[in-house]
Design a protein that fits this description.
Length: about 350
């Protein structure tokens, strides 16, 4: 399957625009910006050098990827460097990663498949998942970079690169990434952990949006047209999601194209709105103009979405205000009684706690 990319979106109406096909799997030559280009495990005398078994296995991997990639994953391999591979995963709807693009550079060791491929996440210095570090490290049992059962570890006889990519998409870039961290949600008080998860999703969405602007400024080699086309087509959806999250119409991560929430979305709070932190709202307001500018440069049709967004801070009464008022009134009434009692004693109307009555 291939994606059709519009290479000249800003032509006047009525003219036929140029389009090219972007296959999900393809062999390319430019490997210059690959993370592992300078740390090859396989180069010998200027040429790739693999044992026959490893070479055969990698060719099998190519065939599997070419035939069985899901629609949301695209892969490029290199004709002169079969030890390297690059993949992009499109963030899944119903997660805080929706509509984002997540790039991974892979390198096959010389004894592949005895050991799993090395995987580097192109993070732009942002950590938007417990399993994806800012330095690009990917923690996954299948890669033997994280603990797990034997059945979850790399198996030279059965494991494949396709399994690695699908695992990252399904197990790492998921609906509630907060719980990827060991220990989160393992103790009583589930509602507390859910609140922490919601707050984490807010942070994740902000970082995902930031990575979009970085990608548009510096798209990976061989994916330049794909990146521009993706955000040209999805820019209006991302901005609409920002506005819905900002207003509390939809819980962060659950925006769909029509503006409704996905099946896993929490019900709106009092007043028909989802609770959203002021921190998140403030960051969205700051980031929104950057997204508008970045998407506009791709030729995206944004309409009224180019208007700046804003939010009003909620004025929440101090919870202890009523209690303090009651205490103040109580203290005031107590003082008044004491003063009134002293006056009675001075006038001879009260003595030793007994009020005198003249006959």
């Amino acid at each position: 399957m291939a994606l059709t990319i519009n290479t000249n979106p800003q032509k006047p109406n009525g003219e036929i625009e140029e389009t090219i096909s972007f296959p999900q799997f393809d062999v390319v030559s430019d490997v210059s910006d690959h993370h592992y280009i300078t740390s090859s495990f396989t180069k010998k005398n200027g040429r790739d050098h693999f044992p026959a078994g490893s070479h055969k296995k990698i060719m099998q991997e190519w065939k599997i990827l070419e035939k069985h990639l899901p629609e949301s994953i695209f892969v490029r391999v290199y004709e002169n460097r079969i030890d390297l591979l690059r993949a992009v995963i499109v963030g899944t709807a119903g997660t805080p990663y929706h509509d984002g693009l997540f790039f991974f550079d892979l390198a096959f060791p010389a004894d592949y498949p005895n050991h799993p491929p090395m995987v580097h996440y192109r993070s732009f210095g942002l950590r938007l998942n417990p399993n994806l570090y800012a330095n690009g490290r990917v923690c996954l049992s299948l890669l033997n970079t994280w603990t797990g059962k034997k059945s979850e570890k790399w198996n030279p006889d059965e494991s494949t690169v396709l399994q690695v990519l699908v695992s990252i998409q399904a197990l790492v870039l998921n609906e509630k990434p907060y719980f990827n961290e060991p220990g989160h949600g393992m103790w009583p008080g589930r509602s507390i952990w859910e609140k922490k998860s919601t707050a984490y999703n807010e942070d994740v969405f902000i970082l995902s949006c930031k990575s979009m602007t970085f990608l548009l400024r510096n798209p990976p080699k061989n994916f330049e047209g794909f990146v521009r086309s993706h955000f040209r087509e999805r820019g209006h959806v991302i901005l609409s999601a920002c506005k819905s999250y900002l207003s509390g119409h939809v819980r962060v991560g659950y925006y769909l194209n029509e503006g409704s929430s996905g099946g896993g979305a929490s019900s709106p709070g009092p007043g028909g709105a989802v609770d959203v932190s002021e921190k998140f709202q403030g960051l969205i307001v700051q980031l929104y103009p950057e997204l508008v500018t970045a998407f506009s440069r791709t030729g995206a049709s944004l309409g009224s979405l180019t208007e700046q967004v804003k939010f009003e801070r909620k004025t929440v009464p101090f919870k202890g205000e009523g209690v303090l008022k009651q205490k103040k009134e109580k203290n005031t009434s107590g003082i008044a009684r004491k003063v009134f009692g002293k006056i009675k004693v001075a006038l001879g109307l009260k003595k030793n706690g007994v009020i005198k009555v003249n006959n």
